Amino acid sequence: MSIAVEIAIEDLMGLDVAAKAGADRVELCIELERGGITPPPDLVEESVRRASALVAAREAKPHFDVHVLIRSRAERGDFLDHPEEFVYSQDEVELMTRQARDSVTAGAAGVVIGALTASGELDVPAIESIRDGALTAGSRALRGITLTAHRAVDALPGRPEREHAVRTLLGLGVHRVLSSGGAGRALDGAEDLAAMVDAVEGLLDICAGGGVRPADLVDLARRSGVPDVHLSARRRAGAPVEACAPETRTDPAIVAAAVDAAGGL
C-alpha cells in the first residue's frame, strides 16, 4: 500500500521544509489558520520555480509539485455544519475562475476547488466554471492539470451525500477529493472515507485531511483505504523553536514523521 503525503503550506520556506522532508506535493494557500484562501500569483510563480529547483537538485522527490487552493474567502476556521462557507456569488465564482487560470499560468501543477449551493449540494455550474479556467490555462501551456476538490464535501449533511458528491465530481473530471469524512479529524471519519473510496471504485483518489497526525496515519490509512493524506504539519503555538529552525510554521519533524509513517505502509 503506497500513501502519498501532501503538506499545506503558506510560504516558500514551508515548501522547502516539505520538499526536503520527502513530501510528495504541497497545497499552497495563505491564511491557513482560517482554512486557507488563494495565494497571489507571484507567490505561486516563486513556489513553482523553487519546487523545480529542488527537484533538479535532487532535494525533493522527482514528482514533487505545487497545487494551489482556489478559495476567495474563508470566514471560519471550522466549516463543518456550515455549508454557507462554500456558497459563492457569481462575482466570487468569476474571481475564482480567474484565480484558477492565473495559478495555472503561473505554473501550478493543479488547483484545489469547490463550491456548494445554498441548499447544501455541490454547485456544479460554479465548479465547472472554475475548472474550465484552470483547464483553459493548462491547454494554452500544453500541459495537463490535476483537479482536486477541497473540503467543501465535509460540509455536506452525511455519508450518502458525500458518496453522491464524489461520484458527481468524478463525472466532472476531478482527480482527487480532500475530505475528513465529515468529521473534525479524518481518523474519526475513517469509515465515511472508506465509503467514499468504495463509491469511486479507484477512479478518483480520496485524500484524507483534517486533524491528521503522523501517529494516526497508519491506522487512518488501513481503516479508510485512502491513497493520500493531507496535513499542515504546523508547529504548535508556543512550542520551542530550535536556533537553526527555518522561519515558517511548517515543522520539519512533523513532515518527516508523516513521510516515515507513510513509507512504512
Notes on the structure:
It contains eight helices and eight strands. The longest helix has 17 residues, at 124-140. It is of the alpha/beta class. α5 (159-171) packs parallel to α6 (190-200) and α6 (190-200) crosses α7 (217-224).
Record the SSE blueprint.
Elements: E1 4-9, H1 12-20, E2 25-28, H2 41-56, E3 65-69, H3 90-105, E4 110-113, H4 124-140, E5 146-149, H5 159-171, E6 176-179, H6 190-200, E7 205-209, H7 217-224, E8 228-231, H8 252-263
Parallel strand pairs: 1-2, 1-8, 2-3, 3-4, 4-5, 5-6, 6-7, 7-8
Summarize the model shown.
By secondary structure, the protein is α/β, with parallel strands linked by helices. It has helices spanning 12-20, 41-56, 90-105, 124-140, 159-171, 190-200, 217-224, 252-263, and strands spanning 4-9, 25-28, 65-69, 110-113, 146-149, 176-179, 205-209, 228-231.
Search tags:
single chain; 265 residues; TIM Barrel; 8 strands
- Rounded mean pLDDT is 93
Q: List unreliable stretches of 5+ residues.
A: none
Shape: globular
CATH level-1 class: Alpha Beta
